[in-house]
Protein: Glycosyl transferase
Amino acid sequence: MRLRVLLATPSSSDRLHTLMPWAWALRTAGHETQIAGRPDFVEAVTATGFVAVPVGPQAADGARLDLPEDVEGIADHASRWRPELVLWDGAAPAAAEAAARCGATSVAALGPYDHPAHPGAHVTYDCLPPSLRAPDRTAQDGERTGVRYVPYDGPGELPSWLGRKVRLPRVLVLGELTPQTVAGLFSSAAGLKIELLCRLRQDRIPAGVRLPSHTRLLDSVPVMATLPTCTAVVHDGSAALTMAAATLGLPQLVVGGGPHSTVPAVAHRLAAHGAALVAAPDGPVPGLPSLVEDPEPGERARLLAKEINGLPTPREAVARLVEPTAR
Structure:
């Protein structure tokens, strides 16, 4: 049976990208799929190749899809299109209320973030494996079904150098790292037999700093295509990037991007498992030798990757999900 499925995303590229494996799994299984989002986010949705449904106000503060106008917009479209299934990101609870109005099955598809259980979800899928979920949510774990995190960061162009053989352990460095952090990383890399790939803004590299040998400065890089060629990654704490590296079993050094930035909880839990090092932007930053020469972070990261990749894929989850809905 072919179903109509409406996905809902807040105005966040990371959260939209987390929903894409679900959208592809639904479409390739033969289901008609549309994605609802704010009008100012329509272009980001259509860039994925899916039909965008503009709902809610033209612009609103914050990335959540939770205003009364959002509920009305989604419910109005659902009353006409009549989806059997509404699948929504954890920051788009307006879709749960709209699903209840139109009698559709409501599915929460949570990204690598902490979300409280939502009473409007018939089923909740969580891409965080049990060992990385909030410890105070143990009682709610039974309400959540695990699903594998599938990394995606949008379209990109593969540079010719990325297809060449990797001759040295490669470390990817990217994000809004402070100049002090970058200078410290470069200093700690001196003498290491590694290749540094750095996607950093020019103003993040202090004037006069000496670049380590085998350093490549890049304006852009297809992150998800580059990560599998790497030995480790240093970044500013994106939850999506943290999970992408975790699925590949890469040890990570996570440094907040500035004095007021916060590192997501998932990075701290990786650190608690010994698979990542986490540092404050205004504090001491561990040197690269502790990331690439100490075998323990890599071993711990590979154990977590095994747990993550043991979860069912979105494609497998869709097959189990749509059967009772179709009945």
About this structure: The domain at 160-308 is CATH 3.40.50.2000 (Rossmann fold). The first strand starts at residue 4 and ends at 8. Confidence is low (pLDDT under 50) at residues 138-142. The chain has two domains: 4-148+311-326, 160-308.
